[in-house]
Amino acid sequence: MLNIEKIFQDKGALQSGHFLLTSGLHSDTYLQCALVLQYPQLAQELAAAMAAKLAGQKIDVVVGPAMGGVTWAYQLGLTLGCRAIFAERSEDVMTLRRGFSVAPGERVLVAEDVATTGGSTHEVVCLMKGSGAVVVGVALIVDRTAGALNIGVPYHSLYQLNPQTWSREDCPLCRANQPFDRPGSNKKVPTWEKSGNKGSGTSKEE
Length: 206
What we know:
Strand order of the largest sheet: 5-4-3-6-7-8
Strand content: 25-35%
CATH class: Alpha Beta
CATH architecture: 3-Layer(aba) Sandwich
Helix content: 25-40%
Order of helices and strands: HEEHHEHEEEHEEEHH
Largest sheet: 6 strands, mixed
Shape: globular
Distance between the termini: 43 Å
Number of helices: 7
Radius of gyration: 17 Å
């Protein structure tokens, strides 16, 4: 059985510090799945472990949100023997571009590397349902909610944990004036930053 936590630790993908997550929440823990998925053998092993959880499911296409879900979706598609595509943001709306499409009735697996609030994952689920596809479930490498994720469809994860997260107002690292990293691929500025109300925490990018 794969020891996901050890794999992440060995590859430097389980990181400690002060992070602004894609969700807009702050955390002292970040999981950079790209540092694991850059190794094809590890990606293959993770996908095989997920495929075992999905045994018996008929899946026509795997869809991942860019950027975190792209490599994971491709590896799952390879392992499951089906198409793999990705959704991306256009004018702040998750959509299919580059000629990608799903047909009504196709059975879709949504693939995401890490879920904290499940926001991006839920957007892709809604996108697929709006296209007439049947969403059979979601495949996560890491579930940061320790099983409490609510995205309206069944989901499977390879690793669950529940690290501390805070709003900007409640973040003790901001109160300690510790600069934050914004490591996610989605650089959308949270509403509170747009308003200029940053509090004591500042970005290392500034």
